[in-house]
Amino acid sequence: MRVLFATSNQNKIAEAKTSLGLLGYNVEQLLIDGNPPDFIEPQTDEIEIISKSKIQQSLAFISGTEFEGSSILVEDSGLFIEDLGDFPGVYSSYVEKTIGNKGIIKILDNISNRRAEYRAYSILYENGKYWSSLGICSGKISTEIRGFNGFGFDPIFIPDSGDGRTFGEMSQFEKDSKSHRGKSLRILCDELRRPSK
Ligand code: IMP
Q1: Does residue 88 have a cis peptide bond before it, meaning omega lies within 30 degrees of 0?
Q2: Which end of the chain has fewer CB atoms within 10 angstroms, the N or the C?
Q3: Model confidence pLDDT, tens digit, residues 79-110
Q4: SS3 string of 179-193?
């Protein structure tokens, strides 16, 4: 089945292809006239509200195009650091581009609680119905940048379910088996496959 992923983040697309590809889904980027659509992000701290709004906007974008009737996937994610009151949360993308990994490590310099979690909220729109799921990956922020794989905060995020390496030190396949995105997409697929669907 074809799923159009409404995102401009190529890393997310690569990861969704790994997770959903294993389950028989064919993930493609949603492009309108060759470009990813520009979304208006509602001003809120609620990740679910942002994702739902992007589905509504995507449906409006594809209305009357060759994509009308396709399944649409939207995913919003972020890094939530416990001792910083869940910062950067929904501002993760901005924080990544501005202060980056070095900045996060600096902020946590004198803080002993380095607990953090990644959250990914996915919504799939298919045949007039919405399916949503939340995937959480708990872990902690490392004291130094380690590894070159993944993207964003991966070189400073150590998942609890691993062996002490950061996501930046893991293969995409390994990250997918533990990550918030992998979990969220697998929950979504399980829901879709339920007979009562
Ligand atoms: P979004 O595109 O608005 O959902 O922002 C997601 C942002 O959260 C990314 O730009 C990263 O800064 C961060 N993020 C989310 N998931 C990951 C991940 O798997 N690895 C690293 N950073 C992530």
Answers
A1: yes
A2: C
A3: 999 999 999 998 999 999 999 999 999 999 98
A4: CHHHHHHHHHHHHHH
Question: How many separate domains does the chain show?
Answer: 1
User: What are phi and psi for residue 121, nearest 5 degrees?
Assistant: -110, 115
Q: Is 76 a catalytic residue?
A: yes
User: If DSSP codes are grouped into helix, strand and coil, which group holds residue 156?
Assistant: helix
Q: Can you read off the two tokens belonging to residue 18?
A: 């790994």
User: What does pTM read for this prediction?
Assistant: 0.90
Entry field: residues in the chain: 197
If you average pLDDT over every residue of the chain, what do you get?
Answer: 92
Q: Which atom of ligand 1 is nearest to the CA of 75?
A: 4
Ligand 1 pocket mutation, candidates 11, 46, 92, 122, criterion most atoms within 8 A of CB = 92
Burial class (CB in 10 A: 0-12, 13-18, 19+), 75: buried
Q: What is the pLDDT of residues 61-82, one digit of tens each?
A: 999 988 888 889 999 999 999 9
Domain that holds residue 187: 2-193
Q: How far apart are CA 74 and CA 124, in angstroms?
A: 7
CA angle 188, 162, 194 (to 5 degrees): 15
The CATH number for 165's domain is 3.90.950.10
On the question of pLDDT at 165 being above 90, the answer is: yes
Among 33, 38, 76, 190, the active-site one is 76
Q: Cα 167 from chain centroid?
A: 14
